[in-house]
Amino acid sequence: MATNTKSIGIANLPNQTHKIVSRKGTTFTVMVVGESGAGKTTYVNTLLTTTIKSYRDHSKRRDALSRKTVSIDVIRAAFDENNFATQLNVVDTPGFGDYVNNRDAWQPLVDFIDGQHEMYLRQELQPHRDDILDGRVHACLYFISPSGQTLRPLDIETMQKLGSRVNLIPVIAKADTITPKDLAAFKRRIRDAINAHNIRIYAPPVESETEGVSERNQAMVDAMPFAVIGSEDDVVTPDGRTVKGRQYLWGVSEVENEAHCDFKKLRNLLIRSHMLDLITTTEDVHYEAFRSEHVSTDGRVVGSVARKDAKFKEEEDALRRRFAEQVKAKEAMFRQWEQKLIGERDKLNKDLEHEHSYITALTQEIKQLEDKLNKK
Amino acid sequence: MSDMRARRGGKKTFLFNMIIVGQAGLGKSTFINTLTNHPTIPKRQCDDPAQCTLEKTVDIQAYTVETDEDGMKMQLTVVDTPGFGDNIDSSTHFNEILSYIEHQYDDVLAEQSKIKRNPKFQDSRIHVLLYFIPPTGHALREIDIELMKRLCGRVNILPCIAKADTLTPKELAAFKKRIMEAIAVNEIQLFDFPYDENEDDDETIQENLELRSLLPFAVVGSDDTLLVNGRTLRARQYPWGIVEVENMKHCDVAQLRSVLLSTHVQELKELTHDVIYEAYRSEKLSQLEGLAEKLAELNMQAQEQQPGSV
Fold first, then answer.
1. How are strands ordered across the β-sheet holding B225-228?
2. pLDDT tens, A261-310?
3. S-S: A87 plus which of A27, A65, A134, A359, CB 3.0-4.6 Å?
4. Which SUPFAM superfamilies does the UniProt entry name for this protein (chain B) (predicted)?
């Protein structure tokens, strides 16, 4: 559990509305989806100015390649800023898009999201529901590879599946790969593809009573999908400033420089200005949609989400294997016993035979003696 | 090199064939255009959004261009492979590329076996495969390992890191190291600038060692030229600086161009013709022999059964 002392703006949240009681604090869950190396870990750590997520060990990556699964990892952190407590959950999806065959790679993601809705639903239908654990996903960041061309089949299919269940926010990471001219064309092509394939992405509300906020919001919408640069390191720019950025031989790209990338806009969207909207749309739109499909008219849960979780299957297989091994071991033991018993039986039989022949011999002797006696 | 030209008298045009493989958007076409200093491969139009979902086969296309590097004239054929690895399931793509390469060998095999040979026969055997690795900064992915493993016995492979200006110098060095480790672990045989300690002179050995240490080559390409310090160069303009393609401190394109268009052309061709092709030929012929034998056996069995059956 990390405690963040640097200000990242979460404290603005209570100012947006009186609905959230600042005493109780809040829970916020973000899912990150994208190929390995897309820049997810770096981005999350940059956003929260803390190393929440650690980089996966390279030897573990090599091992993961052979398992060919998409798994779900949840990292939990507690933030306390200006006495406002937030439970922040980051859901990672290692293995997504990393293989030659990525057929149905989106399934574990969808199962997780639906599973969280179901878990909340079940708790909500309980007689006592003052202590509900809310793990519902409020935002899903989909990381698009900075190819500069357009979306790929896997991107389209996955975003279609996700967009109907969660607030989907497409993001272009490692934006310092693309020149500004190419970036504008790339964003346009992505937006065209999103529209052409009916992908639902999160649309922040633009209108606001406060002056200047509407313009800011409009600028935010126009910049989507956001192109971001991530960096946890402090570097010195040619003109002497110390900033979070990346140091190349030909210059320094800065994370918080709006001319370099949209990091600030995305941070505002996720935390400073639209966090509440993300939470309420999850509750009022996505959760309600799930609920209406999964609650029967007499108030019971129907159509449970099958836990096709790959990790689950793995554990199941491991248990099954262990069980089979134990059965084998027991059978081997029994066989040994059987052998021993057979051995004993044979020995006893032999002894019996021996005794029997002895008795026969003695009986014979007796007979002989009797005969001898009778003859006399 | 110059010896050979002098012996043949006058300037001969060398034939050189290369194939370039990698996923969409890694800058392969841009790199080829940078290499040849000529718009050899046209820019792919990807403006139709409906095209995004199509799962395709690899669209193998060959382009030919004339180059003149260090006085060495060449007819360079570049085979592009758009579509590789872009499907949700790209398992079939490896065989598609392997088939293409083997097909060129088959053509030569057939031609050599002819009694009356075609004097105008164009040898389209592939002399080198450039494989473009995306600059994730982590390690090789399944698709990278599979491709190199399956093709390394049939063609000279030179791995390259695409869009290398994504990585800082430290990240690039670590990435190169991890890639070479993964290549060694998976027993992938590359063209690693081999030299003979007894036969080659020190300069050649030194040159080859240096080139070997650069593997995989860090590539940056650009279609645009910019004015930098009074000179017109191929470069990429970012708000925070300019990346020069020909600058050896920024990337390895200059060295790679020299390898591909002048210094190692002959060696790559020789390895392809004398080693790789010969191996393929022996395999193919012994397969055919094996098949012929089996066929002969089956025929004999059939003959035996017919008169012998009661």
1. B225-228, B231-238, B241-244
2. 899 888 888 887 788 889 888 988 898 888 888 887 767 777 666 555 55
3. A27
4. P-loop containing nucleoside triphosphate hydrolases
Contact call for residues A252 and A235 (beta carbons, < 8 A): yes
Taking CA atoms, what residue in B is nearest to A96?
Answer: B88
CB-based contact A246:B239 (threshold 8 Å): no
What CATH number did the domain enclosing A229 receive? Answer: 3.40.50.300
For residue A98, give Cα distances in angstroms to A29, A252, A301, B27: 24, 30, 36, 20
Q: Within a domain: residue B41?
A: yes
Tell me the residue range of the domain where A341 lies. Answer: 308-376
Chain B residues with CB under 8 Å of A197 CB are: 49, 52-53
**CATH number for the domain that contains residue B72:** 3.40.50.300
How many structural domains comprise chain B? Answer: 1
The residues of chain B scoring below 70 in pLDDT are 1-11, 45-47, 51-53, 307-310
List Cβ neighbours of A170 (8 Å cut-off, separation of 6 or more). A141, A142, A144, A159, A190, A194, A201, A224, A225, A226
Q: Is the domain of A332 the same as that of A286?
A: no
Nearest to B146 by CA among B191, B92, B209: B92
- How many CB pairs below 8 Å do chains A and B form together? 134
Say which residue the tokens 């009681």 belong to.
A21
Give the three-state DSSP class for A350.
helix
Interface probe for A, chosen from B47, B145, B166, B175 (most Cβ of A below 10 Å), is: B166
Residue A211 placed within a domain: yes
- Same domain? For A122 and A44 the reply is yes
Collapsing DSSP to helix, strand or coil, A260 comes out as coil
pLDDT at A4 (0 to 100): 57
Do A199 and A241 fall within a single domain?
yes
Range of the domain at B165: 14-221+249-280
